[in-house]
């Protein structure tokens, strides 16, 4: 895919770009704040209406870190699919992302990351760079100063083992016999989060088969090992309690002994079960789980089992992975995931919220496209909800096995505008029923599964990203409450009451809420306040006012809000960071929902957005404000900087007009 260049708008009129003859008018010059906001809204509306795909969706880049692209190059070399031009494009991207200190971070302006730097280093050597090249010299100094390969995470060492740079026996065990455990049994694959499950099942095959492709001598990385250094994985000791660490190391040693034992009666059955699971979970489009780790590991696993690159599963898988790639001026980058459903639902809500009428062709088309993406078959979630009928939405174009509650709730918010139409009404009812059926026993909602909270899994040797489970979170629960309120659910509903009780239990002492899927407390607090306001909670209650007060207290001097990704590691940084358009928009949305549209803080926030808006209606934002795995995998959604400010300004303006009318 060739990424689209930003368009320069020659006219600030929506009519000029769409031909729509409805209510929208070109905007006049602004005499006051309300008029300035309206003008800013028109510019961003025009931008989005010019960006919509002809099929009705919006789709923007999902940026993560360099390991995703480095692993793509490693995969292709492992399969014997080297391409010098593609290698050059990937190398160009990696070099462009390297910082002057020789490192690669996990997010913009973050500290150098050992794993990102090791994987990028090795990928560049595979692409033909010499160890003596200045970029690699600088990277090597950092790597050796931070423990070398021996201090890297498990997943980094797995990729190195594929090329014989690390011994497979030095990696933790993941016996394929795990596939034979009953689904409800502790430590079965269904005890893991969906993203871990779709990655670990093929990984169990890889760790059993232990394939190796020797790289050219020039690509070896012997120089990254420290003689006499600490053993593999010592970096994760800090996150393990001593007793649990000792227990799992003992288990791993036992497994290693069993692997050497010639008689493993269940090994063949486990391999067949794992292979069958991988093949069954491949989408018709070739995708697995909608995420790069699941796709790469599934391709590697099937290759290790003898499937050739021209076999249908691998051919389709490689084509699907290729659709995640973006060619840019600075090279080729692979996205870790793609987000068209998420982008379309959020953009549609922003446009509708900011005054675009529902009969506008753009919104009618996005409605039809979103309706077509409802999933009508059961996925892994049905293991714990076998009697629940499907009806959710996924994040990507195709991911039938893994719809998620968050996407489904946001889609349903927008489709509520069209629920008077019989066809849409049926889809909405089906979707709401599915979301309600995914409520956990604690009253909250997780993203992909129900009661997926076996926290001890985060302590196993493979748990160095601390992301093995998918428990209920305040931000997703807030989103569901917001959706339910839009569709007329009452606060007296028993399911709503349980959700509110969950939210109250998860509130921090200072009034904020932790954000699982966005950075961080600003995100979580925004989501909860929006949900409580929508569902009809009494917003004068002390716990709600504490949340509002927390947001107000962390407004920056420039009028915006910002929070660094490091707040996940250090709670002293919560609410602290340079102002960003997306996080400022979240705070404004929360304040407006809490009845604070007339507050000094909300008006200063709106001013910040007005002052930082570009002439074409967009905003700039280098910061990563999305979250994959807290602390370890951060995301920069390229749509966030535009869709959320539009949404916030739209609701701010509507609230201001309502106040004037009421007065």
Description:
Mean pLDDT is 92; it is low at 1-22, 25-30 and 234-240. This protein is mostly helical and 663 residues long. Helix 4 packs antiparallel against helix 5 (114-126), helix 19 (521-535) runs antiparallel to helix 20 and helix 19 runs parallel beside helix 21 (581-593). The protein is built from 23 helices and five strands. It has two domains: 14-60 and 339-438 and 473-662, Alpha/alpha barrel (Glycosyltransferase), CATH 1.50.10; 63-334, Glycosyltransferase (Alpha/alpha barrel), CATH 1.50.10. The strands form two sheets. The chain has a three-stranded antiparallel β-sheet, with no helix packed on it. A two-stranded antiparallel sheet has the order 2-3.
What is the secondary structure topology, with strand pairs?
Layout: H1 14-18, H2 33-51, E1 62-63, H3 66-78, H4 84-97, H5 114-126, H6 134-145, H7 154-161, H8 194-209, H9 242-260, H10 267-280, H11 292-304, H12 312-322, E2 325-328, E3 331-334, H13 340-353, H14 361-372, H15 405-415, H16 422-437, H17 474-486, H18 494-506, H19 521-535, H20 542-553, H21 581-593, H22 600-612, E4 626-629, E5 633-637, H23 640-662
Antiparallel strand pairs: 1-5, 2-3, 4-5
Helix pairs in contact: 2-23, 3-4, 3-5, 3-11, 4-5, 5-6, 8-10, 8-11, 11-12, 13-14, 13-15, 13-23, 15-16, 15-17, 17-18, 17-19, 19-20, 19-21, 21-22, 21-23
């Amino acid at each position: 895919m060739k990424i689209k260049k930003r368009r320069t708008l020659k006219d600030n009129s929506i009519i000029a770009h769409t031909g729509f003859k409805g209510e929208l008018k070109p905007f006049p010059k602004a005499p006051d704040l309300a008029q300035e906001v309206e003008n800013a809204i028109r510019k961003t509306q025009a931008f989005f209406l010019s960006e919509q795909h002809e099929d009705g969706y919006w789709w923007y880049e999902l940026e993560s870190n360099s390991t995703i692209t480095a692993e793509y190059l490693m995969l292709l070399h492992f399969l014997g699919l080297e391409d010098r031009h593609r290698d050059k494009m990937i190398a160009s991207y990696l070099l462009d992302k390297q910082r002057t200190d020789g490192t690669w971070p996990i997010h913009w302006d973050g500290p150098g990351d050992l794993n990102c730097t090791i994987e990028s280093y090795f990928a560049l050597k595979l692409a033909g760079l010499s160890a003596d090249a200045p970029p690699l010299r600088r990277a090597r100094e950092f790597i050796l100063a931070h423990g070398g390969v021996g201090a890297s995470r498990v997943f980094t060492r797995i990729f190195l083992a594929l090329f014989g740079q690390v011994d497979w026996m030095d990696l933790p065990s993941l016996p394929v016999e795990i596939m034979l455990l009953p689904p409800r049994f502790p430590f079965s694959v269904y005890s893991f989060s969906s993203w871990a499950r779709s990655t670990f099942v093929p990984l169990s095959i890889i760790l059993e088969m232990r394939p190796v492709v020797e790289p050219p001598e020039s690509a070896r990385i012997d120089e990254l090992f420290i003689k006499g250094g600490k053993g593999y994985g010592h970096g994760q000791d800090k996150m393990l309690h001593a007793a649990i660490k000792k227990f799992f190391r003992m288990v791993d040693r036992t497994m290693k002994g069993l692997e050497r034992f010639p008689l493993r009666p269940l090994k063949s059955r486990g391999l067949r079960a794992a292979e069958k699971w991988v093949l069954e979970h491949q989408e018709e489009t070739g995708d697995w789980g909608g995420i790069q780790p699941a796709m790469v590991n599934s391709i590697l696993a099937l290759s290790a089992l003898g499937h050739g690159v021209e076999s249908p599963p691998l051919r389709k898988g490689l084509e699907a992975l290729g659709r995640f790639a973006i060619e840019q001026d600075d090279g080729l980058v692979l996205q870790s995931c793609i987000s068209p459903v998420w982008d379309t639902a959020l953009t549609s809500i922003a446009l509708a919220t900011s005054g675009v009428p529902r009969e506008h062709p753009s919104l009618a088309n996005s409605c039809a496209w979103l309706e077509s993406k409802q999933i009508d078959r059961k996925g892994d979630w049905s293991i714990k909800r076998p009697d629940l009928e499907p009806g959710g939405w996924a994040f990507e174009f195709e991911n039938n096995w893994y719809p998620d509650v968050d996407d489904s709730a946001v889609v349903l918010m927008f489709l509520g505008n069209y629920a008077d139409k019989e066809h849409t009404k049926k889809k909405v009812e089906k979707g709401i029923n599915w979301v309600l059926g995914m409520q956990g026993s604690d009253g909250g909602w997780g993203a992909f599964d129900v009661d997926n909270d076996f926290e001890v899994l985060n302590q196993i040797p493979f748990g160095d990203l601390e992301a093995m489970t998918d428990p209920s979170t305040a931000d997703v629960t807030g989103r569901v409450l917001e959706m339910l309120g839009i569709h007329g659910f009452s606060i007296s509903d028993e399911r709503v009451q349980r959700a509110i009780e969950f939210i109250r239990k998860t509130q921090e002492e200072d009034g904020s809420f932790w954000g699982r899927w966005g950075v961080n407390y600003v995100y979580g607090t925004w989501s909860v306040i929006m949900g409580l306001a929508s569902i009809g909670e009494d917003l004068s209650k002390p716990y709600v006012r504490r949340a509002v007060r927390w947001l107000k207290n962390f407004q920056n001097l420039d009028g915006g809000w910002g929070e660094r990704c490091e707040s996940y590691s250090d709670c002293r940084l919560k609410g602290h960071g340079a102002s960003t358009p997306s996080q400022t928009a979240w705070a404004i949305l929360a304040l407006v929902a809490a009845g604070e549209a007339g507050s000094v803080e909300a008006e200063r926030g709106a001013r910040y957005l007005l002052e930082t808006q570009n002439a074409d209606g967009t905003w700039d934002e280098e910061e990563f404000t999305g979250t994959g795995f807290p602390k370890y995998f951060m995301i920069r959604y390229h749509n966030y900087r535009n869709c959320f400010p539009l949404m916030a300004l739209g609701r701010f303006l509507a609230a201001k007009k309502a106040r004037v009318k009421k007065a």
